[in-house]
Amino acid sequence: MDKFLVLVIDSFGVGAMQDVSEVRPQDIGANTCGHILQTFPTLRLPTLEKLGLINALQMAAPDFNDSVMHANPAAAFGVAQLQHEGGDTFMGHQEIMGTLPLPPVRMPFSSVIAKVEDALLSADYQVQRHHTATLSLLWVNDAVAIGDNLEADLGQVFNICANLSAIPFSEVEKIGHIVRAQVEVGRVIAYGGLLESSTQILAAVESKQETYIGINSPKAGVYQHGFQVVHLGYGVDASTQVPQQLHDQGIATVLVGKVADIVENPHGRNYQRLVDSQTILDITAEEMQRPHAAFICTNIQETDLAGHAEDTARYAERLELVDKALAHILINMDSSDCLVVMADHGNDPTVGHSKHTREQVPILVYRPGQQACALGIRSTMSDVGATVCEFFHARAPQNGRAFLAALDATRLQSA
């Protein structure tokens, strides 16, 4: 069937990166996978165990032995470091797709408000400053607010929040690209929903630390009806990523779940705005059985949501669901297929805060007939994207070193 499936268990890290003491001290000691298994030492995930989960966990955290599960001597596995700063789902998936992450600049929107304002005025938008006691955000065409993202790590993301009853989303995207061209923060998010009045956005203005000002999006109501969003990353060039390289080779890309919301895939199939894990896994299984070659990338978001909720029981229950679905997928794979199970960062429910944790991620590989193969510690998650391109004989993406040769060599030796 010539399918290559990358299944991303969102936030399922296997141990803190070595640099956390310097760059994210709040993540010292984080180990999402290890701490869930310590909390539930009798938890069994037989498919992930077969794929080498414990192998990868022990590679990243050599002292771990607090589970009824064991390393599999026949597994093909490795661990990947995060090359992007922090631990971010958006940049994590851009890295997986072969983007070389650029170091973003952290800053409050106030430091660039004049520059963004001038660019929008030059593009003939109506721009006003909406003031609080000490801070200002931009109010564009009486329907769009531009300011800081107050939910992410402060200073890393700017938000463009719009009333789509008053302005089309295509115009909001244009505003987003203008802002993106003026700033160097890691992400600009342009989004909106259908509101009865644009005043709902201004009524949801909030500030933090007397430095950051933005919109409380749930309070504004933009998620409730007709929500649309585009994420614009710093230095992300979709023309160098896996979907475009595969399209040029005549191979389709299928994105399922949150990855479809954040990765550009204009020529493929995109299952967007999906959260329910069972629905996402069912679609993935169906796509694996379609005729013709395809690259499928699936994101299981509910594990990440359990991490944010600091709910280890919910996290473990979602892992069990994924494990059962993977067993079904493995049974139906043939010798021309390849599966990689991985994560994009961590989100340790036990670490003492509810944000992402900067962790290494497992790389678990399965192909019918594949024998044991230690892929080592990879310097970037882009190695997965590079391997996908090599699998389909496509041009390599911008970043990453493929490990297909190591897998093939092991296969040949076992033949």
Describe the structure.
By secondary structure, this protein is an alpha/beta fold. The protein is 33% helix and 21% strand. The chain has 16 helices and 16 strands. It has helices at residues 20-23, 32-39, 46-51, 53-60, 89-96, 113-122, 169-182, 199-202, 217-220, 242-248, 258-262, 277-288, 302-308, 312-331, 382-391, 404-414; strands spanning 3-9, 76-80, 127-131, 136-140, 144-148, 157-163, 187-193, 205-208, 212-215, 228-233, 252-256, 269-271, 294-300, 338-342, 361-366, 373-378. The strands form three sheets. The chain has an eight-stranded mixed beta sheet, with helices on both faces. The protein has a six-stranded mixed beta sheet with strand order 3-4-5-6-7-10, sandwiched between helices. It has a two-stranded antiparallel ribbon with strand order 8-9. Strand 6 (157-163), helix 7 and strand 7 (187-193) form a beta-alpha-beta unit. The model has no long low-confidence stretch (mean pLDDT 95).
Question: Summary?
Answer:
By secondary structure, the chain is α/β, with parallel strands linked by helices. 33% of the residues lie in helices and 21% in strands. The chain has helices at 20-23, 32-39, 46-51, 53-60, 89-96, 113-122, 169-182, 199-202, 217-220, 242-248, 258-262, 277-288, 302-308, 312-331, 382-391, 404-414; strands at residues 3-9, 76-80, 127-131, 136-140, 144-148, 157-163, 187-193, 205-208, 212-215, 228-233, 252-256, 269-271, 294-300, 338-342, 361-366, 373-378.
